[in-house]
Amino acid sequence: MIRPHTRPPRRPVLRRHGVALLPFVLLILTCTSGEPGVGGDGSTSDVSGPTAEGSSPPPQGSPTQERPRLADAQIDLQQIAMLQQPVALAVRAGDDALYFAEKIGRVVALHEDGAEPEVILDITGEVSQGSEQGLLGLAFSPDGRFLYVNYTDVQGHTHVTEFATTEDGVDVASRRDVLFVEQPFSNHNGGNLAFGPDGYLYIGLGDGGSAGDPSGNGQSLETLLGKMLRISPRPSGGDPYGIPPDNPFVGRDDALPEIWAYGLRNPWRYSFDRETGDLWIGDVGQSAWEEVDVERAGSPGGRNFGWDLFEGSRPFEGGSDEDETVPPIFEYSLGGGGCAVTGGYVYRGEEIPDLVGAHLFGDFCLGELQAFVLRDGEAAQIRSLEAGVNGLASFGEDADGELYVLSLNGPVYRIVPAPA
Known about the structure:
Layout: E1 14-16, E2 19-21, E3 75-82, E4 86-90, E5 98-102, E6 106-110, E7 118-122, E8 135-140, E9 146-152, E10 158-166, E11 169-181, E12 193-195, E13 201-204, E14 227-231, E15 259-262, E16 267-272, E17 279-283, E18 289-295, E19 303-304, E20 310-311, E21 314-315, E22 330-333, E23 341-346, E24 359-363, E25 368-375, E26 378-388, E27 392-397, E28 403-407, E29 411-417
Parallel strand pairs: 15-19
Antiparallel strand pairs: 1-2, 3-29, 4-5, 5-6, 6-7, 8-9, 9-10, 10-11, 12-13, 13-14, 14-15, 16-17, 17-18, 18-22, 20-21, 23-24, 24-25, 25-26, 27-28, 28-29
């Protein structure tokens, strides 16, 4: 189990618009590296949770929730299904089923705990099967009429594809490619999909792979790689998708209008807090630091999360105090067994009151579930939840705000209160 320990703060210099900030640093031990099946490369160092300076304040009218008693939260994991390499979970409006993306290329529906999963889409013959490739994400439109999937084809390139839904699942004949992105390498494909509270589709793409971002994609506004995209996925003006008019780079000749945020290495899982609308991103590091980023609801977008100028809050290739980048809200080192952060969710369910408002996340190689709360712009109450799974590939959230943990080895678990 990872336990906090006491040591002098390192006081790393964080950046916002050329201003040097010296926050208090929280340090905890973690682990050493390995090559995950779905996220990035690993290696050595240690853990800190710097402030989220540079993030926008919550929108007016955001609820002021009671602070969670995270120290008292006790959880257990209840297995509800065994699938083939599950990597993502989605729910559909007006539908009680849980829908899972299996990395091998299938979407399956689970209608009740313990039931036999129903295959509603099978594209196994069309997806590449490399360690960071395959069917990587899925999301339903807010009205439930369309299913969107994100996968790498047999050449390794990214597709975001739309299917109309039916009472029986999906209409395969309705298939329509929304977005295609060439991938220069087999790793760092991102792959997650999520609709935001604004109704737009957010698409996370890695920097294109290899190591060290050799083409500088993270910092370039002329490529979709290394970005968080924001689009209206339905056809618009003869194009396969529309561009929200308030996207931050609309109208600029030197930037692509789909870009919402940049400076990401491999955003392996991100989610919106269903209560506040904040966007939480788990971004896989290079060889020393994993990070969790937060973009507060009401942000105008256009934020630079630092890669490859920085790995976490540490300079990587040319980063300096003058760079206008947003540091992570939390980072941990790969000096003890970790290899790739698995981004999670802020818990908003009802079954575990002490967990409400806490952000849950983990690491693919460690498998241990961890949590912290965001307090005054800082990660606080960082702790292990003393539960975990092998091959921690993803988290998921159902219509009631209850959370699930997906193992690449097959099991799907529901997070439940520990027995009294």
